[in-house]
Fold:
Amino acid sequence: MRVETGIFWVIRGEIVFDRESREVGEGEDFVNYSKSHFDMWEKLAAGKKIKGRRVWGDFVTFPRGRLLYDVRARRYVLYADKCVTPSDVRRIKKALGIERKRCEVRVDEHYSCDKCEEEKRKLTEVEENGFCLQEGYRLTWYKGNDENVVIPETLSGKNRKS
Structure:
């Protein structure tokens, strides 16, 4: 059986990709694309013009992902950055030649663009420094000698009951 594999980036809304087609080997559980994003960055995107502007950055700057084939489950697996939208997924599947094939899409933190990495860095900072972010609440900090005390208030100013 012949299957497709590949890698991709979503750069300014455009799908930049490379794919390869090959036969499933005897005893293989997964069929993977043979090259890395790092290896293909210079060839496919770095310094090229996309939507009239040169692409600056490195291979992790933009949302990216990889297409594999799961031999046992008999389906494709598309690993993608969480910034890749459902619309992007449809265009990626078409570009990689699997638009009508069984495919499971998985978000994978390995494929994190600069935007996602910045969000993770902020969350790590929040955890390490004891900050707490809660949707719809304003947090007031009172610094004591030995500890920080947080009193969450709703946006209307009423204390939240725990």
